[in-house]
Amino acid sequence: MTGLILVNLYTYFQYGGTMFDRYFEKQEKKSPMAGKLAFDKGTKYYIGIIRGEGHTSKRGDVYYIEQAGGRLIDVSKENVEVRDPQL
């Protein structure tokens, strides 16, 4: 019993969760914009692929955008033009 508690404490602090999280964790709603392309409204330059939406105290409503190379950034929705990927 003590070993189970110690293992869960270790995984909680090391990885941010326990082995039981997948049973109790709520599924996040997927953004309808996920997978679409993000372009800067001012310059029309490509920013990256939208992976989700959220709200920050600094920028307000934001898109979480994955840039080329895998880096994830948050950009205010006001500054993003969303386009469907062309097949």
Would you mind describing this structure in some detail?
The chain has helices at residues 2-15, 21-24, and strands at 37-40, 46-56, 60-66, 72-76, 80-83. Strands 4-3-2-1-5 form a five-stranded antiparallel sheet, with no helix packed on it. The chain has two domains: 1-26, no CATH class; 31-87, SH3 type barrels, CATH 2.30.30.60. The relative contact order is 0.18. The radius of gyration is 18 Å and the shape is elongated. The chain has 87 residues and is α+β, with helices and mostly antiparallel strands.
Can you summarize this structure?
This protein is an alpha+beta fold and 87 residues long. 21% of the residues lie in helices and 36% in strands. The chain is built from 2 helices and 5 strands, in the order ααβββββ.
